Amino acid sequence: MDFKLPETGWTPSLLFFGFVVCFGAAIPAGMQVSVINAPAKHIQTWCREVISIRYGSILSQDEMELFWASVVTATVMMGMVGCLSGGQISSKLGRKKSFLISGTLLAISAPCFLSCRALSSIELLFIGRIVAGLALGLILSVMPMYLAEVSPLKMRGAMGVLLPLGITAGVVVGQIVTLDQLLGSADLWHYGLGCGVLFYLFCFVPYIWLPESPEYLYTISKNPEAALKVIDKLFGQNAIDDAFVKQIRIPVPITKQSTSISLWTVLMDSKLRLPLVLLFSMNMGCGLSGINAIFSYSVSTLERIGIRSNDAKLVSVGFGCINLAASSCGPFLMARFNRRPLMLISCVACGTTLLINTVIIHFIDSVDWFAKASIGAIVLFLLSYQLGVGQIPFFIGSELFDIEPRASALALGNFGSWLSNLIIVMLFPIEQHAWGAFAFLPSSAVCFILGLFVFFYLPETRGRNISDTALLISKGFKSYVR
Length: 482
Fold this sequence. Notes:
By secondary structure, the chain is mainly alpha-helical. It has helices at about 10-35, 40-55, 60-95, 95-115, 120-150, 155-160, 160-175, 190-195, 200-205, 215-220, 225-235, 240-250, 265-270, 275-290, 290-295, 300-305, 310-325, 330-335, 340-360, 370-385, 395-400, 405-435, 440-455, 465-470. α1 packs antiparallel against α5 (about 120-150).
């Protein structure tokens, strides 16, 4: 029997919960993604000076690039660790405590950033990046479950996109605060890296009022009475009819597994293979679609097409604002349209716009207005991305997996997102240097391939119970979902 929450719309408690998760976790997580980019040259200059003074060594340009790559990838590598451990942590401690742990890790990273320059400590910069990476991995692994499990079936899509919406908002905030005119200068960059501490108040202050996941309480903790109290708190007593009260009070059989299924068991279960491949592919496709390359290397890309450095930073912020505006439509789209057509349209549109941009950049010296056309193509890509590719992978796992394998499955799925991030960080600069205008072609191909995979194997999940969705893909790769 599927666990079901009462079908309600937005309630004050549900809105409050979404607000706290968005401001207490998603926005500071997004800031950690972007704050390192704009002041990168200033931080590198400081690192070079500290190494010279403390160790008497002067780094060459190649050595500096290698050193900086280690600073950037430290967060990505620890994000992988955080996402893989998130499943076990959330199953043993619960979703609510996992949220607190992620906020605590982010809070620990802040003083490392704020004090590293004053103490001339590169070690503190590394520690801050490592701890922030662990927090980001945990957030991306746990928050989709947490949001889905406190949401009624018809609200899961709208609630699920609050995480990517908050992360997108955080990316924009990080871009703005680290502009040279604000906290991105040579003297203030450490404040830019640590200013996210202000958002952690949204994690700790309202924590006592946050609910535990009722689905977790009922299925994993075997505490139906506690689940009923949480549902009453979220939706009100009037939302619970007699039939629902009867269902939630049914004793959970003691023979039923009381903990989530391990990572290895999920990997070996043939019935879970197709949904796991779907989740992993969609998360990896989300990262390889070109969005990480655009925001991680937007300034250098814009400079390559002839835009001055300072103007390139401002245009990059403009990209972030457009991305945020498009992302804010997510709750409306997910509440009213099916996942499958949105994802298909988004994949094809993303691949097409990247292909067009490749052609524009290749011939940019031949036509005067092609620089503006390239900017327009990137804007169209951002709009296409937020239609589905940038939204649906964040919550689709909660609609494909039942609660027992869900934590481990989402951890494995999010591992794909971090792996794609690592690939972009390491390979895109090399592609850009070697291929020039054709650096975005692999991302375009990824979008088209992901679209084909979605067309053949992704079932429609909107409005369906997980048991019904599982039936559609019960034959694995022989399933027919169209």
